[in-house]
Specification:
The chain is built from 6 helices and 3 strands, in the order E-E-E-H-H-H-H-H-H. It has about 100 residues and is of the alpha+beta class.
Length: about 100
Amino acid sequence: MKSLGVGVWFLPGVIINYAVSGWHSPYKRALRQMKSKEYRDIIKLCTEEINMTSSTHMSEALLLRATFYLLRGEMNCAMEDFEQLLAMDGVDKHVSVFKL
C-alpha cells in the first residue's frame, strides 16, 4: 500500500480515500482508542463527531459519550446525551436497544 497524500492510499488497481470512507471519523478513532485501552480522549472524539454536520455516527457517538460520562460519574452530562438520543428519529435498532 502506498500513500498518495493525506488520507488517500493506493493498492494495485484501487484508490482508497479514508476520510471519505469514514476511517478517519472521530467516532472511529474513539473506537480504535478503546480497542487499544486508551480512554483519555474518548469523550473529546465523540464530541467532535457529534458536532460534525455530516456525521454518519451521531447516535453511536452520543451513546458512547453518555456511557463514558456515566463511568466518570458525570450523570447530568450523561442524561443530556441519553435524552438527545431518545429524541432522535431513525436511530439504528442496535443503538435503540441501549437507549431504553
